[in-house]
Structure formats: structure tokens, C-alpha cells
Amino acid sequence: MGVIKKLDAHLIELIAAGEVVERPASIVKEFMENSIDASSTSITVEIKNGGITFIRITDNGCGIMPEDVRSAFISHATSKISAQEDLESIMTMGFRGEALASVAAVSKVEMLTRTKNSVSGTRYAIYGSREEAYEEAGCPEGTTIIVRDLFYNTPARMKFLKKDSSEGNYVESAVEKIALAHPDVKIKFIRDGEIKLLTSGNGSLRDTIYEIYGKEAAENMIEASYKEGGVEVSGYVSKPGYARANRTYQNFYINKRFFRSKVCVAALEEGYKGSIMVGKFPACVLNISIDPRAVDVNVHPAKTEVRFQDEKAIFHTIYYAVKSALAQRDNNALSSAGSTKPTLTTFEIHAEPAAERKTLESVVYENSAEVKKEEALPRVTFEYKAEEIKTSKWLRDAVITADASEDEQFTQSVLKEPVIAEKQELPEIREFFADEIKSDETPVKMQERKNIRILGEVFETYIIAEYDERVLLIDKHAAHERIIYEKIVKEGAGQERQMLIVPMSVALSKNDYDAIVDNLDIAENIGFEMEDFGNGTVLVRSIPMWAETSDIRALTEEIAANIASCKKNAAPEELDALYHSVACRSAIKAHDKSDINQMKALIEDMVERGDIKYCPHGRPTVVELTKRQLEKMFGRI
What radius of gyration do the chain's Cα atoms show? Predict the structure, then answer.
């Protein structure tokens, strides 16, 4: 007798449900997308116990006709596609016809629906794919779906769900992402009887960002828009100063459908290269409008993965959208400065159409007549101070006429992708004199330097000191960063602390709050005494001695965001990155003027802790010049 047999229909439905229904957030996402497809202008989502025991989604859309209600719960039954060709031009949020059937297979579902011209509506109840009720009922126009007791008939799936607060955060995140894609839809989210989100539905994306992320986020977003070929990008990107500790605030949409893409992330962050600190990430809400035939959204049931015909075109359009937004912001800032506006020199980057783009060869424009030949090419203009071009090698190399006057315009074509040449770093001072360093002039360890004489600081960044016929140049930020890092690693929770007279409450995003509340011991190891204050807020009671009270909020957000990015399973290497990040944020900043006592205390710390050569990121903290090297430079020997 054969061992291969066909599975029964119910078991097939349970297996299929495993792909679509991962957690309550999956249900909310699918049903809200159905509401959007039904032309709803108002959607209310209500959950209890993280959505595990109760989910209700109400919309004012077109509703479902009575004769279609039963069919809607049949697997692969849909009104959105009917032929193979339709898969090539999908514009609706849903199209697979799997959501209702999958949810009904693993929960108790009740639907109330009425179409616009109907006098009465329909009530339909289905528990574990078994019909319980089908009857006429009074209800408002639109559709209401209630889901109870998720995974009641598949307890093995239930044990993989997280605690109620975590599942509730996932649901809230799903609601927010849909709200950002559809600012013209009024969305209300109720969690355990409390309204957590209410968008106006007035069509303003900036207003929606304000309603979801708050005032600070909205004020730090700048509009971005760029179109190349058949790809158009629009939305908002953050100002460089609003960089985040993780990518939580990065939102990408394809034809208003949220998706995840390494290409889009790379293009966004390449656009910010040189504008934000390493290890920090920009925020964005960007929608890519593209011919649906140029993208395949039928990759995974969750529809968060897509495939592009031309990834390079997507990369370039996002990159130029970011660059143009940042350049426009800089221009506006300079314009508002009035008469103090510095002299600027402009150079333009030309983006050739994707079909004609050359990656290795450059086109040099000798005169304006030749430039006119390329008038049809899209371009992005960036402005730099004339003195920056004089002093920066990579900018000098970028312009065509090196001896032109400051007021002339310089034009650069695309030399190779990803368009902008990277800024070249100068070698360390020591490299200029490496061949002159003798065996008797080896660097002296910091703990041996007992009588260092401080001479001052230059550029409000580097301390100059003298010791034993040597000149020491100390990067005060790098040195202080290393000292703090060493304290965190070696002393941990035993660090000396300062109690706050008035504990500070810090409000966090849902993911960050959930991460830090579950890992208060990690904050303790960094030197922060915190406790859960409820409603997305933590209370900070004490901080390490090296921390400034003015930095408490920022440091708390930094710690929480880093823990969240580790997915709350912090491996040693991820914790080390967190220590780096906290030390960097807390250290003395370059261009912060230091008095003699601060400089002395820093050097004493370096001496006490021994041979501190590099900051946690690998940059040198001290560069030495010997008397012999200086005499060689001035021709004395």
C-alpha cells in the first residue's frame, strides 16, 4: 500500500494559514489592506491582549454583497484578479484571496457587512473554517470583522507568540505603516480601551508623521521628490541632525505598499554619506511610484518582499531624491542667513537615463555649448563653499577647471556609480616622518608620562601638550570616548554613579520601550538605574558619573534603540557596539571649547588608565612629534 496520500481540506487550510497568519499583526495588516481596497476613508482598529483574544476592524468601504460573503472565505477566492495577465499589473493591496480563509482556519471570525444601496446587511460567523451563522442583520455601511481567540485550535502555534505587550506593539507598528502610506484615510487605533493613534485623514503626509512619531520628528523631516524615467520617489527624509540609532524609522513603499529592500536602504544611506555619523541612520517615509509591470509583488504571502526589473534605476532615483532634498535644505538655510550668506561655488551632477548610463567613462564639458547638448538630462545641483573646494582635494578633483574663479560654475559628470567620489582621508602625521623615527624615540606609554605640560588646544578639538622633548597632539573626543568605554566594560554595574534629585521620565517608541523594559540589566551594566514607568515611559533614577544630566534623555533613547536593534537577544559583539555608541555620544565633542582644568583631567585619566592608543572605533587618540622630527622639518639637522 502506498504511503503518499492527499491531505484533507482542513489540514491544507491550517498549513496555508501558517504562511499568512504569523501573529495578530499579520491579521490587522491583511484586513486593513482589504479596507483600503474597498475605498474606505475611515478605518478603526481595536485590539485586546495584544490582539490574541480580540481584534475588531471597522471601515466605511463599499461592503460585500450577501451572495459574496460565503465566497470571500474560500481560499483563493478574490475579486481583484481574474486572469494571468492581471498578475503583471497589480495595484490593489490584496490579490491572493488567502487572508480571510487563513484567518478563519485558526480563529473565530465574525463579519458584519452592508453595501451602499442595501437596506440591511449580512452577519456571517465562521469558527475554525466551520460555518456557525449566516443571517440578515442591521449594520452600518461598510464592513466590520471581529477575530477572537487566535490559534485556539492550533496550540502549537500559540506558544510561539510573545507576551501581550510585545504583540500589541507589533500590531501598532503595522497600523502606523499603513497610516503613513495612506494619509488620506482617517485611522483610529484602540488598544485595551485606550486610543493610541488617531490620524486626521486630511491627505498631509507631514501631519501623519506628526501624529505617529511626534512633533520633533515632523519638524526634522524635509520633503524629497525626484523622477527619473518611469520611476518617481516622493515623501520625506530626515535632516542629518535627526539621525537615529537604528533603522526603525525607515519606511519604504512601492505604489503605497510597505516593503523591505536592501537596495532602497543602501540608496538612502549612500545619499547621507558624509552628512551623518557612522553608525547612525536617517529616517524616511518614501513612496516609489512605478509601473506595476516593472515590479513583482507576488513573491511572498506577506507581500513585504518584491523584485524589481531594474534595481539600479530604483537606487539612483532614491539617491537623487535624498541628495536634492538635502541640497535644497542647505540652500534654504543659506538664503535665510541674509547678508551673511557666504560665497558659493556650484557644481552639478548629471544623471544619464538608465538605458544609456555609462559606469566607467566620464564626459568632460569644455564649454557651455557642449553643456547645452545635454540639456535633456536630469540633474541635481549641490552647493559648496568656495573655500571648501580650495582646501578639499576630493572637491578640487571633482571640478573641471581647477584655476577658475570662485564665482564660476563647475560641472562634473558621473564617473562611476554610486556617483559621489568618497572623501579621502589624510594619513596620520606620523606617516610623514616614519623613516625618521629612531629606536631611541619609540613612543612613551601614557602611564609613564608623569609631568605633561599642557600648552592649549587647536581647532577646539586637539589638545597640545609637551613631554620629554615630544609634542603630543591629543584628540580629546577620541580619548574621552575610549576612557568611557573602558569604564563601561571593566566596571559595568559597579561604576560610580550620581543619583538624580528628581528622577527623569523618558518616553520611547513602542519597540524601544519594549526592548529596554525586557533588558533593564543591560542599562544597569552601562551605569543607568532605570525602571518601567508604564505607557511607553521609563524612569531614570541614577546615571554614571561620566554622563551629563543634560544628556540623560538622549542616552536613554540611544541605549533603548540599540537594544531594540539587537532584537533583544544581545550577543557580546552587539553589546560591544552598544558600549561604543554610548561612549561616543557621551564623550566631549569636537569644537566644544575646554578649559585648562578639563584638559588636565582628561590627560590625568589617560595616564591613570595606561596605554590608550585608539578610540573604540579604531581612530588614534594621540599623535606624537619628537624634537628631532621638528628640527628635521625646520632644517636644523
Answer: 30
